[in-house]
Design a protein that fits this description.
Blueprint lengths: L5 E6 L4 H12 L3 E6 L2 H15 L3 E5 L7 H12 L2 E7 L14 H29 L3 E5 L12 H20 L6 E5 L4 H8 L9 H9 L1
Parallel strand pairs: 1-2, 1-4, 2-3, 4-5, 5-6
Helix pairs in contact: 1-2, 3-4, 4-5
Length: 214
């Protein structure tokens, strides 16, 4: 990858898979804009990458689970006047339990983060990529999005939306030279386990199989 003056935007960049994306891209000389909720964690990641790889790294602290967060992030990116050639939609979280017993607001935040924010941000950044006939989008979905998962109903449903949206967009953008990649890791168990390490609900065989695979 020849970064030149171009930047890659990575959401959920302060930990986990987002940090790995950031490190891998920085190692290839790619300038970065890192987005997550914690400014302190972003500054730590950004500082380490600047020191080790000598690339430009700009941290942006923003809660992408909020209403219209994708539009707000796009506005902030516009003020940076950076040439964005890669968008990595990685931010996400999971909740495990019966749909009716989980807090509704928290479940709606999951839909906002996994789906609405991704759609908003993609819609705002795509026109410039299409105009330049170059660029790419990586959408981090989940293997859980390939099937319904009881006791993680909205997690699997939101990831199913993301997978289908991403794959459909890939076909629409074929003539434009803009690439779309959909990643479906075995991340379901890891995400949910981080919220409740002791949870092992035997009533959820699909979820437990995914736990064992991870």
């Amino acid at each position: 990858m020849s970064s030149g003056g171009s930047y890659a935007v990575i959401t959920g960049a302060s930990r986990g898979l987002g940090k790995y994306f950031a490190r891998a891209l920085a190692a290839r000389g790619q300038n970065l804009i890192l987005v997550a909720r914690s400014q302190d964690k972003l500054e730590q990641v950004a500082g380490a990458l600047r020191e080790q790889f000598g690339v430009s790294v700009k941290p942006l602290a923003l809660d992408l689970a909020r209403h219209s967060a994708g539009k707000e992030l796009a506005r902030q990116l516009a003020t940076l006047d950076c040439n964005i050639e890669l968008l990595v939609n990685n931010a996400g979280f999971g909740e495990r339990g019966e749909f009716i017993k989980l807090p509704l607001d928290r479940q709606l935040e999951m839909i906002q983060l996994h789906d609405t924010t991704v759609v908003e941000l993609t819609y705002e950044l795509l026109p410039e990529m299409i105009k330049n006939r170059r660029g790419g989008i990586i959408n981090v979905s989940s293997i859980a999005g390939l099937q319904p998962v009881p006791y993680a109903a909205l997690y699997s449903a939101s990831k199913s939306f993301l997978t289908n949206f991403s794959m459909a967009l890939r076909e629409e953008l074929r003539p434009t030279q803009v690439k779309v990649v959909t990643v479906c890791p075995h991340d379901y168990a890891l995400i949910l386990k981080s919220h409740n390490p002791k949870s092992n609900d035997k009533r959820c065989p699909v979820a437990n199989r995914l736990m064992k695979k991870s």
